[in-house]
Amino acid sequence: MRNIKNISVAVALIAFNVLFSQVAIGKQTVDGNSTVLDFDNIPGNTKGVILPATSGLPGRTLVNGTFVFDTTDNKVKVFENNAWKPLSDAGSSSMIVANNSADLGKGVVMGASSSTADGVLVLESQDKAMILPKVATPHINVKNPYPGMICYDTTSKTLAVFDGLVWNYWK
Questions:
Q1: Domain membership flag for residue 1
Q2: Signal peptide span per the entry (predicted)?
């Protein structure tokens, strides 16, 4: 009887963590209840999220909200309404180191127990979002940005995207 109780508690904890999972990187807790992924946004932060660099995703099922740095035309893009939309001008992929290793597994899914999206990191939630790393004036403070880096510029209050040459800002 005691084993059944312990197993029930363990199953309940696992289900709770899957349904209400939130991840903080570089800190102990996330900001707010509507966050699935949050970063340590200390004053003076100069780190952002680096998007995968790819020459396209042929043969893959794409979902809205997929972000990549497309090395075919050196643009940061988002997949929306069955089409790629550029978020930057043509930049440069000369700094990108090619990763020729084979993909292993389906990647990591946060916020849900599974996903139909195919990505290395999939944030899947009906009621939670990601808080980007916050950087004040990244074009000045990030000394060596990598192509495909994105962050939230706290000075201009915009999405900042580095295309390998310049920063692009989106309101």
A1: no
A2: 1-26
